[in-house]
Amino acid sequence: DYAGKYLTVVRKTNDERHLATALNLHGILYCHFDDYPTALEYYLEALAITMRINDPDIERWIVCNIGLIYIQLGNFPSGLHYFMQGLVLSEKIADVRHQGFCCYNISNAFLEMGNYSLALNYGMQSLAHNEKLGYLIGQANSLENLARIFYKLGDTPSAIEYARKSLQLHETTEFKRGKLNMLFLLTKISEEQNELHQAYQLALEALEL
Length: 209
Fold this sequence. Notes:
single chain
């Protein structure tokens, strides 16, 4: 109710930047309720405004929010399209952290589309951006993504190396889901290498989380 009233008031003003921010907020709220079509309507209206007033600072967030919806819906080419726009905009305003975020999602999209070479390229860029900032959560996510890419490429030693690095950082940041993802990957690799005792120990560790 408050958000709706807020948007109604903002629509009556001539502050388009404020309106774009309010519309973006509405999109985020509808995403939380899994109402992606309605969220997309608000995001696209907000995007049109930011493009009209040439505001890359807000526009980069909106295009990435649109990209996230398409990724969630499994439409990876469309998600990729919007994250590429987000990357250009974040480079324009020299926001390194947002560049890392965009590269991470671009890498994931290419991974899902089976383009492992480009997934690896953008995954490495994402890791480099996050390492430059010392952003541990971003580093852990980038390493996790790269571990999955190396696994798909059949480079098992690199997959293990990056998975272990990611697991260590996820433990530092106490991100349980990330830890589970890497423990499951390491368990799978151990099973494939017939290291059943190690696979059993990793599986037990995952179950204890």
